[in-house]
Structure formats: structure tokens, C-alpha cells
Amino acid sequence: MSAALTLDLASGVPPYEQIRAQVTALVAAGTLVEGERLPTVRDLAADLGIAPGTVQRAYRELEARGVVRSRRRAGTVVATGADAGPAAAVQGRARDFVRRARAAGLDDGAILDLVRGALMTA
């Protein structure tokens, strides 16, 4: 899973929030499923080149939202019934939007710019 996560350290979004958002999106998309184990805090931090405390904060945020559950010695796993809440309801429409945007020749950066613009005006 850690290969699926990327960080943009030049972004204004804190790294822990980028991790939280990406894991939530992977759960909503069904890429991460109930009971699937996430990398240890140390392993993910090493893979991403960040401090373990940053990953720890992301995992705490995910647990507070019910996306994962963490237990000593058992690690952090996708929680039972985790579907990223309301985001799961619009996941199909988001995929359709991305497919149409890519078919129109837009790259991922341009697609994200469109979404950010829509968020600012909605």
C-alpha cells in the first residue's frame, strides 16, 4: 500500500493530511478493504521519507474518523464497515469525471485544478 501513497512536500497541505486523505480515498475506492493491514508507522515513514510522528498523526486522524482501527501488536487495519462515509456515495461520479477529463486530454494536475476551483466556488 505504501507504494500507492505519495507526498507533495511543496504543497500547502500538511503531509499527515495528505496521508489521511489518500488512505480514505483508497478505502472509498475499494482498493483497501476491511481488515487489510496498513504499513507500520515506521515502515510508512521510511518509505515516504518523513518523521514517524507525521504518520502517527495521520493514523490517529483516520482512527478518529472510523476508517481504521489500531491495536498494540496487531497493527493498524481498515475498520469494519469503513467506507469513507459520504464520500463513498459519490465515488462513481468522481471516477466518471476523471475518465471524461482524461479523455479530453487533461493531465492529473489539470484535473485537480478543476476540482479545487469547483471547491472554491461551490
From TrEMBL:
Gene3D superfamilies associated with the record: Winged helix-like DNA-binding domain superfamily/Winged helix DNA-binding domain (1.10.10.10)
For this UniProt record, give its keywords in alphabetical order, as a comma-separated list: DNA-binding, Transcription, Transcription regulation
On whether Signal is a keyword of this UniProt record, the answer is no
Boundaries of each HTH gntR-type domain copy?
A: 13-81
Identify the PROSITE patterns for this entry: HTH_GNTR (PS50949)
Transmembrane regions listed in the UniProt entry: none
One annotated GO molecular function: DNA-binding transcription factor activity
A Pfam family name for this chain? GntR
The record's listing under InterPro entries reads:
Tscrpt_reg_HTH_GntR (IPR000524), WH-like_DNA-bd_sf (IPR036388), WH_DNA-bd_sf (IPR036390)
Looking up CDD domains in the UniProt record yields: WHTH_GntR
Recorded superkingdom:
Bacteria
Name listed for the protein in its UniProt record? GntR family transcriptional regulator
Species of origin:
Georgenia thermotolerans
Tell me the organism's taxonomic lineage.
Bacteria, Bacillati, Actinomycetota, Actinomycetes, Micrococcales
